[in-house]
Amino acid sequence: MNLDMEEDKENIHNLLHKLGLKATEATKNINAALGQSYVTNRTAQRWFKQFRDGRSTPKRKKGSGRPPTVNRRVLAQRMRCNPDTSPTELAVGHCHPTTAWRWLRSTDRKPKKTKWVPHVLTDKNKEKRKNACLRLLQKYKRGRLLSRIVTADESWINYDGTAQKIVWRKPDEETAMTPRPDKHGKKQMLCVFWSMRGPLHWELLKPGTSINAKKYCEQLSCVDTALKAWNALGLHERKMVFHHDNAPPHRSETTRRHILETLGWELLEQPPYSPDIAPSDYHLFRSLKNFLRGKKFAKPEEVESALEEYFASKRGTDFYERGIRKLPAKWRKVVDSQGDYFIE
Length: 344
Hints:
This protein is 48% helix and 9% strand. The protein is an alpha/beta fold. The chain folds into three domains: 5-52, no CATH class; 72-106; 123-336, Ribonuclease H-like superfamily/Ribonuclease H (Nucleotidyltransferase, domain 5), CATH 3.30.420. Helix 1 (5-19) crosses helix 2, helix 7 (123-141) packs across helix 14 (327-336) and helix 8 (213-233) runs parallel beside helix 10. The longest helix is centred in the middle third of the chain and has 21 residues, at 213-233.
């Protein structure tokens, strides 16, 4: 009997059906006649049960099997209502999570990690950001704002040299892995005050210490001294506009009085939870961390030497000017996004 598998199955099934014997006896006779085990007792028993149920062929009817119970329109509607839902959340009360995952893949969606944002913005936060940026844009349009800005911020410098880096990858290439810095590892806080002309003052605090209002006011006085020297040389506009974020030492009443009453500076508005429109965050520190990436330090003198090297490398370039000149475009993006964070 030289038949292919499907023909063998069909013929043996028909023989069993015609013999009308018990499953075990029919199997024994067929195998004896053909000289080999073409059919097992278990298969014969299953087929005999099908005979009793009225089935006369081993072939399944077209479209037989479990009917589909998943309504894809339901899944699509759920995705429209909540685009950030997971397969498990998408499947709740409707289908198995694996089914939802397969449907997501069939729609050419791919899993991607979400990006960290500084804060979950409420509607009130967004409105504040939008309105603040509208006022800043109006101030910018009146002219001669950017050249008067001095901005300040702080950042931790890790001794182990870990830092994120921007890399370019094709869609099928893996993203570079960067370990998170050890939050308990050795580090120092860097404080920088700079304008379009470059840094007026920078200071590396002692290891393990951070800034407070008293220390911040001392630094502001150093900046004022440097600014007066710049003014004498014609390197800066006389009426300075000071920009910093809403960190606790910055927004304290002691600091505010020192800036407005003692130093007589003008404060530039900065909405809360907005590092995306802070020049040090989006420009200076990003460049600095990339420069320090992979450099390991054993003592404060080595950190200070590396910082001096970095600031010297930017001298005579338009690096600082480019950072400040990005501000109006950043403000417009906040307005266009209705106060939400914009992804770059």
